[in-house]
Design a protein that fits this description.
The complex is a heterodimer of chains A (about 425) and B (about 350). Chain A is built from 16 helices and 15 strands. With about 425 residues, chain A is of the alpha/beta class. Chain A has a five-stranded mixed β-sheet, with helices on both faces. Chain A has a four-stranded mixed β-sheet with strand order 9-10-8-11. Chain B contains 15 helices and three strands. Classes of the chains: A alpha/beta (about 425), B mainly alpha (about 350).
Chain lengths: ~425, ~350
């Protein structure tokens, strides 16, 4: 009798728990961070707390390696199989929005008021994605090296000019102490690095990948006078052997600065922790030089969005809104060295709080960041620009190469009927 | 006839059908699909409807023209020369970006030669594709004979009854088993321009006389470096096929040759080589096809650079289809590649046919 009663009670309890679990509608989410345990741990914690905090939705995360993530989403979209929530790399967002992979977010504007503007993915008056973090690049070097060669330490208010940068590189080269004065990261030829890191130089010269007023024409902008001036300067870096070329050993890119092969390195906040560890107080993160039209660095990192085919956009939006809290930004920042998207989160983070070694990166994002062209054509444009940069670095004629790149970009825009612009 | 063929060999067809079905689904069908896509403007990511564009994709890949540039002349009509005595020509921009010659717009220089004082410039609508075509043919023409000969040499060496010969077979075959991506990454370190293994080795052997060469960063050495590495990587595979061929030759033929007093060379020329005939045809066709599919080494080691010196057809097909999201452009290259390989295979079959 007793046994039977207990059994009955257990079944009933189980049924109630089961019902509670069933009452939560499942939301699926794809994330690009597979293979990174710290990052996954933070995301898992967010999901766990979200699922426990309300009774309508239950988020389930599936992670993919970053290298295969975009292909996975494209294949998923072609097969009509996207999850409810995805994350998207900032510059790719307009392409996915245009193709109908993602839908505009419906979140309370108040929650993103304090965000860095570049962490918010706006395309055509709608917000499609929001990021919990930003990324920034800086000129990483050592105070002792600059002092030795009598080079002025630039500030955000007064960055190096083009002449100052060139003179500094020449002076270090003459010293003969390093293999190369500056490492631009030419070894990272596979991904988005070239357009992300080097297009801002072009933009600081006064050129751009495309005319941003219409997003329809690259001719005259990429290969205009400013573009060609940039190209000549870019090529001269390699001709004068101030920087290693496209065949740079990837291992040197990772450790060359610390091993003393290079005096400076143009690198992102994600690699800054190593430099801090190696050089301690001697390390400097310097702002981008000003080539005439103000100093610029690239912007927009991974952001979160709701897929267009989601059956439960309200749940997906609710989850994204839940993620945007400062404490999750701090958790991500502490776990993987990314820059928090709000100043209040930055102030609480280990790496970017005031006085912390990498605090300057938050200011760089705030002061110098310029979004990559916000158009669905960007991914193709970036590929074309990448090749032009590599060719010019290897000695191709500057004007011809930029002409060809501009033609190719324009032809692609035409083939896509203007990309909806 | 066909019906009796079907009836008499039911088991044979039964065994063949799974393979036919798989080849049909994954090779024949996709090829027809690629052919169809090459006639459209299909994109990878686009909400725009796919349109039929006829042969536009082929035109934009294959368009070639020759223009003549007249030298710059001074006020007296004399040809202007630069400091080195070379004739100065106007920039090609004056032709390809000139409203008077709209037919050349967007075309780029492929190569040029001089005829008298004038320069003849071959301009192509898609220079990268043209360079990829030339590089691919160069690769095939060098790798096919070298790799086949080297593999035959190795096969002859290891086709002996020696103690521990299997160790050598294993060593030669090892690079084939390792993933090509891993091999390419390792060779990237070997070819490193400053302190790579190859540069260190050469400078050690010459007591420091040898100046380090940036093997993969220099347009004149990049393709050669990839050719050498590719030959080394796949030679073991073909060695095994040669070895299989060698072991089908009856030992009695060699005994007969010995009795006849044949020299080593005569034994090879009149016994071994005729016995390897079918193997040779197979190896030639297999290497040719594999060479045309050159992709992984390029993707890992150079991405087609420097200055397009290592662009190849398959790399361009992938780069266009997925990188530049132009599925129709990638399909067009695939179709052209298929036609090229088909033609070459047919020619090879015809040249190596059994003559009666």
């Amino acid at each position: 009798m007793n046994i039977r009663l207990t059994a009955f009670a257990t079944t009933a309890l189980g049924a109630i728990w089961g019902a509670q679990a069933f009452a939560q509608t499942e939301l699926t989410m794809w994330y690009h961070g597979a293979g990174n345990p710290e990052e996954s741990a933070v995301l898992d914690q967010i999901v766990e707390e979200f699922n426990a905090s309300q009774s309508d939705w239950s988020v389930v995360v599936q992670s993919f390696p970053a290298g295969a993530y975009n292909d996975t989403v494209i294949a998923g979209a072609l097969a009509g199989n996207l999850p409810d929530i995805i994350d998207v790399d900032g510059p790719v967002m307009p392409s996915w929005a245009w193709a109908g992979y993602i839908q505009p977010l419906e979140i309370d504007q108040g929650t993103i008021e304090n965000f860095l503007p570049t962490a918010i993915g706006r395309w055509k008056d709608d917000i499609y994605s929001v990021g919990l973090w930003e990324a920034a690049v800086a000129m990483v070097t050592r105070r002792s090296v600059l002092e030795k060669y009598d080079i002025r330490i630039p500030t955000l208010a007064e960055p190096w000019t083009r002449d100052e940068l060139d003179a500094a590189l020449e002076a270090i080269k003459e010293g003969g102490e390093f293999d190369y004065p500056l490492d631009l990261g030419m070894a990272w030829s596979a991904d988005e690095w070239y357009p992300y890191a080097f297009a801002p130089f072009l933009q600081s010269f006064g050129g751009d990948l495309i005319d941003r007023s219409t997003y329809l024409e690259a001719d005259g902008v990429l290969n205009g006078d400013a573009g060609i001036e940039f190209g000549e300067w870019w090529q001269s870096l390699f001709d004068r052997e101030l920087v290693p070329g496209t065949s740079q050993d990837p291992a040197d890119r990772d450790s060359g600065l610390i091993d003393g092969k290079y005096a400076m390195s143009w690198n992102g906040n994600w690699a800054a922790a190593n430099a801090v560890e190696a050089f301690g107080d001697d390390v400097l993160f310097l702002p981008a030089p000003d080539f005439g039209n103000g100093p610029k660095i690239g912007a927009a990192s991974w952001q979160f969005a709701v897929s267009a085919s989601s059956d439960h956009p309200e749940g997906a939006n609710q989850f994204i809104e839940f993620m945007l809290q400062d404490r999750w930004q701090v958790a991500f920042s502490n776990a993987q060295a990314v820059i928090p998207a709000t100043s209040s989160a930055a102030a609480e983070s280990e790496l970017y709080a005031e006085g912390a070694p990498m605090a300057v990166f938050y200011d760089l994002s705030k002061e110098q960041a310029l979004l990559r062209p916000v158009t669905p054509g960007y991914p193709v444009m970036a590929k074309i620009f990448r090749k032009a940069l590599a060719d010019i670095a290897s000695g191709a004629d500057v004007a011809d190469t930029l002409d060809a790149a501009a033609d190719e970009i324009d032809a692609d825009i035409e083939a896509n009927s203007g990309y909806g612009n | 006839m066909a019906s009796s063929l079907l009836r008499s060999d039911r088991a044979g067809w039964g065994f063949a059908i799974p393979a036919f079905a798989l080849i049909g689904t994954f090779i024949v069908l996709p090829f027809f699909f690629a052919f169809y896509l090459s006639l459209t403007n299909q994109r990878l990511i686009s909400p725009n409807p796919t349109e039929f564009v006829g042969l536009d994709n082929y035109r934009s890949l294959l368009g070639v023209a020759v223009v003549t540039l007249e030298p710059e002349r001074g006020d007296d009509g004399a040809v202007l020369r630069d400091e080195d005595g070379n004739i100065e020509y106007p920039s090609l921009r004056s032709v390809t970006r000139n409203d008077d010659t709209p037919q050349y717009r967007g075309m780029r220089e492929w190569f040029r030669w001089s005829s008298g004082d004038d320069a003849r410039v071959v301009i192509a609508r898609d220079v990268v594709f043209m360079k990829a075509l030339v590089n691919t043919f160069t690769f095939v023409l060098v790798v096919a004979p070298c790799q086949a000969a080297l593999a035959l040499g190795l096969a002859l060496l290891i086709n002996q009854r020696l103690r521990g010969i299997n160790v050598f077979r294993g060593i030669y075959f090892m690079p084939v088993v390792v993933s090509i991506v891993v091999v390419s990454l390792l060779w990237r370190f070997i070819y490193d321009g400053q302190d790579g293994l190859l540069n260190n080795l050469l400078s050690g052997l010459t007591f420091g006389l040898f100046q380090p060469v940036d093997w993969l960063g220099n347009p004149s050495t990049a393709l050669g470096s990839i050719i050498v590495m590719s030959i080394w990587q796949a030679v073991g595979f073909h060695m095994v096929i040669w070895l299989a061929g060698l072991q089908t030759i009856s030992p009695t033929l060699y005994e007969a040759a010995d009795i006849e007093g044949a020299t080593k060379w005569q034994r090879f020329r009149f016994v071994t080589w005729p016995g390897l005939r079918n193997t040779a045809v197979l190896i030639l066709i297999v290497i040719t096809m594999q060479c045309f599919a050159l992709f992984a080494q390029i993707d890992v080691m150079t991405k087609g650079g420097p200055l397009d010196s290592t662009q190849t057809l398959v790399f361009q097909a992938v780069e266009r289809g997925y990188g530049k999201q132009d599925i129709s452009g990638g399909s067009t290259i695939s179709v052209l590649l298929f036609l090229i390989v088909l033609c070459i295979s047919l020619i090879q079959r015809w040249l190596t046919r059994e003559r009666t």
